[in-house]
């Protein structure tokens, strides 16, 4: 039987010469929301955000029903100063996991060897110093049904490259090919510690430097290469928000023809031109069931001038639930988190669904 990586090696040819074939949609009615607000949502903020605020944001999000939170980034503070205290966030999560009704996966970006070394230093130190109950300690009583409890967190590694050479060089100071070479030892090291790997491909539907027409076959070949190297999931990112419904459909058909399975992909939309929800529906129709989003529509990209925030988590949840799909996310709690973090940043939430939900809830409370 072929391994998963072997199958993607065979798919490499298909990425270059994609055949015509029928696209099957996923039968699942559950949609997985990856909350990227604490990392992708905050990284472009100019004002200094206190560590306590970042940790509180993570803790509040664990109460909303999301199962995956992108919590920080081990990158150079010179280039992304807002992420300078990600090691403290990881240490807090490992030593004092926020209580939740279900296990939470926390993702941290580490795009180079130094970043991974810093992540693993905190990860291994915290793992080795966690307190164990003495052998004569009384057994812990079982939790009440539905009660929140402390769950052992899972830590995932995220890496990133891009679909255009110019953006890759601006973002990582290397070519696409060089970025893949850099990833090999990083991925091998993470795999040796049983850490799952998520790989971002940026600017798949438009580049701020090379324009709106990014070759979908190049994206597909890059996705196949990353999966072949051992990535567990590919987040295909419309970093500039230039994507349209037809371009999104073409990209997803090309990825499917290259042998990239829908369950191995996530879609990451920015709402610069107001197309994120439309493109999300297109992705649903092509079998995608994992989506990145940021509470209150936080975000932007320091290497994509003019790009606005991520699609708001509240808006995605409302959309998917209105279509009869299940997200497991409490829209009311998420809207409250969106309003809270927006107040901390001295702005208004960008989520239309969040604002509408809270306005209705307040009107009802006055009746």
UniProtKB/TrEMBL annotation:
Pfam families from the xrefs? HMGL-like (PF00682)
Its pathway?
A: Metabolic intermediate metabolism; (S)-3-hydroxy-3-methylglutaryl-CoA degradation; acetoacetate from (S)-3-hydroxy-3-methylglutaryl-CoA: step 1/1
What chemistry does it catalyse, as a reaction equation? (3S)-3-hydroxy-3-methylglutaryl-CoA = acetoacetate + acetyl-CoA
Q: Where is this region: Disordered?
A: 125-152
Q: Which GO terms describe its biological process?
A: ketone body biosynthetic process; L-leucine catabolic process
The EC category is lyase
Q: Which UniProt keywords apply?
A: Lyase, Metal-binding
Enumerate the spans annotated as Pyruvate carboxyltransferase domain: 31-335
EC number(s) from the headed UniProt entry: 4.1.3.4
PROSITE patterns with a match to the protein in the record: PYR_CT
Q: Carries keyword Lyase?
A: yes
Query: Which stretches does UniProt call biased (Pro residues)?
Result: 136-145
Whether Zinc counts among this entry's keywords is no
Xref: InterPro entries: Aldolase_TIM, HMGL, PYR_CT
Annotated Gene Ontology MF terms?
Answer: hydroxymethylglutaryl-CoA lyase activity; metal ion binding
| Entry superkingdom | Eukaryota
Database matches in PANTHER family: HYDROXYMETHYLGLUTARYL-COA LYASE
Q: Which family does it belong to?
A: Belongs to the HMG-CoA lyase family.
Any idea what this protein is called?
hydroxymethylglutaryl-CoA lyase
Q: Which organism is it from?
A: Aulographum hederae CBS 113979
């Amino acid at each position: 039987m072929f391994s998963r990586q072997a199958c993607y090696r065979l798919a490499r040819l298909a990425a270059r010469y994609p055949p015509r074939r029928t696209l099957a949609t996923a039968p699942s009615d559950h949609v997985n929301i990856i909350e990227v607000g604490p990392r992708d949502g905050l990284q472009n903020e100019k004002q200094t955000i206190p560590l306590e605020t970042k940790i509180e944001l993570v803790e509040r999000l664990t109460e909303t029903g999301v199962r995956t939170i992108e919590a920080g980034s081990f990158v150079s503070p010179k280039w992304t100063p807002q992420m300078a205290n990600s090691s403290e966030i990881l240490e807090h999560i490992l030593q004092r996991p926020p209580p939740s009704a279900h296990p939470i996966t926390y993702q941290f970006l580490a795009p180079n060897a130094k970043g991974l070394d810093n992540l693993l230093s905190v990860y291994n130190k915290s793992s080795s110093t966690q307190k164990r109950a003495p052998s004569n300690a009384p057994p812990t009583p079982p939790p009440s049904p539905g009660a929140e409890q402390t769950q052992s967190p899972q830590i995932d590694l995220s890496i990133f490259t891009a679909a255009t050479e110019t953006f890759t060089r601006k973002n990582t100071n290397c070519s696409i090919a060089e970025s893949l070479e850099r990833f090999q030892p990083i991925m091998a090291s993470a795999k040796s510690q049983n850490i799952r790997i998520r790989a971002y491909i940026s600017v798949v539907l438009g580049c701020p430097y090379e324009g709106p027409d990014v070759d979908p076959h190049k994206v597909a070949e890059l996705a196949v290469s990353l999966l072949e190297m051992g990535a567990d999931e590919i987040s295909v990112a419309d970093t500039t928000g230039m994507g349209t419904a037809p371009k999104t459909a073409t990209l997803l058909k090309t990825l499917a023809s290259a042998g990239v399975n829908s369950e191995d992909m996530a879609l990451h939309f920015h709402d610069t031109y107001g197309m994120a929800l439309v493109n999300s529906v297109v992705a649903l129709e092509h079998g995608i069931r994992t989506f990145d989003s940021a509470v209150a529509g936080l975000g932007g990209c320091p290497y994509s001038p003019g790009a606005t925030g991520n699609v708001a988590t509240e808006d995605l949840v409302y959309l998917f639930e209105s279509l009869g799909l299940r997200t497991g996310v409490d829209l009311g709690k998420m809207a409250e988190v969106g309003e809270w973090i927006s107040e901390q940043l001295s702005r208004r939430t960008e989520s239309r669904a969040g604002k509408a939900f809270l306005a209705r809830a307040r009107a009802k409370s006055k009746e």
